[in-house]
Write a structure and sequence with these properties.
By secondary structure, this protein is mainly α. About 75% of the residues lie in helices and about 0% in strands. The chain is built from twelve helices and no strands. Helix 4 packs parallel to helix 8. The longest helix has 27 residues.
Length: about 260
């Protein structure tokens, strides 16, 4: 495994994933690139767990108070379960790309604690799009809305493995981005995404047509995240933790957009 002398176990990778991608308290036994590689391949499992928690909360609220509040609840729970990490990355990448400055200056802008106008605008538009798409799904039924939350959360974590392919370098040394960059073989990313898609297809049987819609939405969401990845690699020279966060939010939003179009 790239960057480590010993192969990490899948359990160690899962603990690494839950420890870095969620607020859930787990004991991270290994903090190295071998464990990071396993974590990024199994990141869709984190998405399924967090998505199930957010989906349950959103469905309950939608059942009692309507689809829009259910959508806002689900998005709020997901943001809370991740400390808003992916949203912060999305805003930072928007500021970096929007600055028009050379890579070094753009990366410096992304590290600043404040959010600029590009970041604010992108956050507002993406969150509005996600809320609108989820409200439509919850409007059909709490179950369909819950499945949409599950699919978007899973698609977001599928995107992470593709951002950490061995062919994709880190944009700068240090930080989570450098730890996970260039650790995942293409076969591992494909296997993780395919397994997640099959799990969603099985869950989608609860709603009939969703068995086809959910895997397709994950594929489209992941594809959109890869387009963003290409842009960031050309612009910044590689990935950072912020780029991975932006990829996750892009995949989530694109998968929900796809589900809305497929209705």
């Amino acid at each position: 495994m790239a960057g480590g002398s010993d192969r990490a176990t899948w359990a160690e990778g899962l603990r690494f994933g839950f420890g870095t991608l969620s607020v859930l308290r787990v004991r991270v036994e290994r903090w190295d690139r071998a464990a990071a590689a396993r974590a990024m391949v199994t990141a869709p499992v984190v998405g399924l767990v967090l998505g199930a928690m957010a989906a349950s909360a959103g469905a309950l609220v939608a059942w009692r108070a309507g689809g829009l509040l259910g959508a806002v609840t689900a998005l709020g729970v997901l943001a809370g379960l991740t400390r808003g990490l992916h949203l912060d990355g999305l805003a930072d990448v928007a500021d970096g790309l929007g600055s028009g400055k050379p890579a070094e200056d753009a990366l410096r802008i992304m590290k600043q604690s404040d959010i600029g106008p590009f970041g604010v605008l992108t956050l507002v538009l993406v969150l509005l799009a996600q809320a609108a798409a989820l409200a439509g799904q919850f409007g059909h039924s709490p179950l369909r809305g819950a499945l949409a939350v599950l699919a978007s959360a899973t698609a977001a974590r599928c995107a992470l493995a593709w951002g950490c392919l061995r062919s994709v370098p880190a944009a700068r040394p240090g930080g989570l981005g450098a730890m996970v960059a260039s650790t995942v073989p293409p076969a591992g990313a494909a296997a993780g995404t395919a397994t997640a898609a099959l799990a969603l297809a099985a869950a989608g049987l609860l709603d009939g047509w969703s068995a086809l819609r959910l895997p397709l939405a994950v594929a489209l969401g992941t594809g959109c995240a890869r387009l963003l990845l290409g842009r960031c690699v050309r612009r910044f020279g590689g990935i950072t933790g912020d780029v991975l966060g932006a990829m996750a939010e892009t995949a989530a939003a694109a998968s929900l957009f796809a589900l809305a179009l497929l209705d």
